[in-house]
Amino acid sequence: MKLILLGPPGAGKGTQCKRIIDKYNMKHLSSGDILRAERTAGTELGSKAQSYMDSGALVPDDIIINMMAGAMKKESGGYVLDGFPRTVAQGEGLDKALADAGEKVDGIVNLIVDDKVISARLTGRRSCPKCGAVYHVENLKPETEGVCDNGCGQLAQREDDKPEVVDNRLKTYHEQTAAVVGYYESKGNMIINIKADAAIDDITASIFAELDKLDYQVS
Ligand code: AP5
Fold it and tell me: What gap in Å lies between CA 169 and CA 167, rounded to an integer?
């Protein structure tokens, strides 16, 4: 199964992806996580992406499409795309990459949350720089404050979770990314809309109920 998880920054895409991949035995392909790994590794791609990410702007489409097409090619089974596509041009690039491989998108989940909820989620988020696990200072606490449950060590706050950058990420979402939903609707894809201002477990249950209807065989 090839899934796309859409939604604004802080909608809970990463949080829900972890649960989806565990239940359906899929891989998590997060454009943001891949870019952060490139930055940490000090690659040319990572340094090209840095200024865009730090300001809350989008990394150019050609860079992202090549990066994600490369990541998708390495996977022989199902995966969830998180944070990609983020523009209509990226949607077109994704469709071409899938068509070239004789594949297609099986489901699109769109998490819907008001901007006012997002700010509190992002400023309270803490992530593990090593394993990528995501926590929240109020809503999803680690067992020991500030420490990853997976034994990796200290949690960190993402640079782009500062309030001024969050505002810009939201602006970027509304100006460039929200249109991706309309792009897929115009192509006849069914969008699974999930109200994502509920409790994390309730959102997971809603997503699973919808994905189970896709009749995907877990391998
Ligand atoms: P990326 O890493 O993709 O960030 P994002 O889309 O802005 O999404 P986030 O990771 O911030 O949020 P999320 O929806 O995953 O929420 P999470 O589950 O963590 O991108 C970063 C940057 O990279 C971009 O700004 C851009 O520069 C670049 N980039 C990436 N992809 C690109 C692309 N395709 N094209 C161009 N540029 C690209 O949850 C957030 C917090 O809320 C957590 O603390 C969590 O515990 C908490 N939480 C989650 N759900 C709930 C809930 N239901 N109730 C309460 N709290 C909750």
Answer: 6
What CA–CA distance (Å, rounded) separates 205 from 174? 27
For residue 9, the ligand 1 atom closest to its alpha carbon is: 7
Find the residues whose C-beta lies inside 6 A of ligand 1: 7, 9-15, 31-32, 35, 52-53, 56-59, 64, 83-84, 86, 90, 121-122, 124-125, 134-136, 139-140, 160, 169, 196, 200, 203
Q: Give the nearest ligand 1 atom to 86 CA.
A: 34
Task: Give catalytic residue positions.
Answer: 13, 86, 125, 158, 169
In the chain, % helix, strand, coil (3-state, to 5) comes to 50, 15, 35
Residue range 27-75, pLDDT digits in tens: 999 999 999 999 999 999 999 999 999 999 999 999 999 999 999 999 9
Residues in CB range of 74: below 8 A, 6 or more apart: none
Predicted TM-score (pTM) above 0.90: yes
Residue with CA nearest ligand 1 atom 17: 12
- pLDDT (tens digit per residue) in 200-217: 999 999 999 999 988 654
Span 101-158, pLDDT tens digits = 999 999 999 999 999 899 989 999 999 988 889 999 998 999 999 999 999 999 999 8
